[in-house]
Amino acid sequence: MKTKQFSVKYRDDGNGTIEGYASTWIRQPDSYGDVVKEGAFTESLKERWNGGKGIPMLWAHQMNNLASYIGKADADEDEKGLHFVAEFDGTDEAQRVRQLYKDGRLSKFSFAYDVLEAGPTTLEGGIKATELQKLDLYEISCVLVPANSDAGVLDIKAGRRNRKSDEDTIKEIISLANSLLDEAEDTDTEPEGNDEPDDNSEEEDPKGAVVAEKERLLQFIKGLKEEENS
Q1: Tell me, what's the pLDDT at 106?
Q2: Per the confidence metrics, is the pTM higher than 0.85?
Q3: Which of 46, 55, 75, 154 could tie 84 with a disulfide, CB 3.0–4.6 Å?
């Protein structure tokens, strides 16, 4: 199995989406001395990835590391090359990589493949190269160094994180708000044997204070949910 690299761009949407070209049909050899023939991915896209499963997006081709599976991509061939749109997962690893693209510290991608058909070719100016005529695509990876500088980014989306820890935080806040409500209800019963107010003590309203705090927390929760659905 072999790999090649390319570049991408960035935009905001969900967990983060990247759009670009995994390969192009440019007739200039890459750093491996290869050019890719137009239509080289047709059978692989139809046979391996047809059905909406999504092409795996990995970090640095680490197929044996479950945490490196950070998203999935859909791809198609057009007049320029192998076009793809990939969505990041919501995991910490995926969102860290997303942030690196957003910051511009990463800008390249790579794809893993097997050569099914290839042969020598002579390009303009008498340049010799290997023409990759039929390829089996396995995955797309986020990497630092590219092999094919022509394949580049169209757009990247950096979305908002939706982690399990965020859900746990909201649940904890709701639990606290409910506890405060119970405490407020307990103040409805006045202590026995204390009917006369103490003229020397400051006037207090513990129930009102607790209810106000509960209302503040519930408004905060409402804001979090509205942000999540926006």
Answers
A1: 84
A2: no
A3: 75
Joined tokens for residue 12: 């905001």
CA angle 169/18/39 to nearest 5° reads 145
CB burial of residue 101 (10 Å; 0-12, 13-18, 19+): buried
Could you report the per-residue pLDDT of 22-39, keeping only the tens digit for each? 888 999 898 889 999 999
The pLDDT tens digits of the residues spanning 76-99 come to 999 999 898 999 999 999 999 999
Single-letter code of the amino acid located at 77:
E
Which residue do the tokens 């192009």 mark?
Answer: 24
